[in-house]
Design goal:
The structure is a single chain. Helices cover 83% and strands 0% of the residues. It is mostly helical. Helix 2 (12-34) runs antiparallel to helix 3 (39-46) and helix 4 (53-82) runs antiparallel to helix 5. The protein is elongated. The two termini are 46 Å apart.
Length: 138
């Protein structure tokens, strides 16, 4: 906990890095204590290579599109508050544009999902959840 006090309060990236390193340290200690093998193999299991270029591009795109969606919605709602004339005509146009922007964000998230490499994990989790629900129902 002492190291946590040294980190600036607004530095989320540093906190995440600290927690990652702490987790890695604890795992290495356990591995050494258990004599489970070579620490080099353990390090390779813990430290990921990082996201692929495609994954990172889709993540940034989803972030950008989500921000644009919010800015658009806020702008249009502010304009409706200021000018209430022809509101029946403006609302359907706004809804149509919001739907198009939502589809863009959902597409970005789908591409992100395709490139993250966790399809097998998702299928296993869905199967486990299904089995749990079925067990509780029966």
């Amino acid at each position: 906990m002492r190291a946590k006090k040294l980190l600036p309060r607004n530095s989320l990236k540093l906190r995440v890095k600290f927690l990652t390193l702490k987790k890695e340290r604890d795992y290495l200690k356990k591995s050494l204590r258990d004599n489970s093998g070579d620490t080099h193999d353990v390090l390779n299991e813990i430290v990921p290579e990082g996201p692929s270029k495609e994954y990172e591009n889709y993540r940034r795109r989803a972030f950008r599109d989500t921000q644009e969606l919010w800015f658009f919605a806020r702008s249009k709602l502010d304009s409706l508050v200021k000018d209430k004339s022809k509101i029946e005509q403006k609302v359907p146009e706004i809804l149509s544009e919001l739907e198009a922007r939502e589809q863009s964000v959902l597409l970005d998230l789908e591409k992100l999902k395709e490139n993250d490499g966790f399809d097998a994990w998702r299928e296993a989790e869905a199967g486990d959840l299904s089995a749990l629900v079925q067990a509780r129902l029966n």
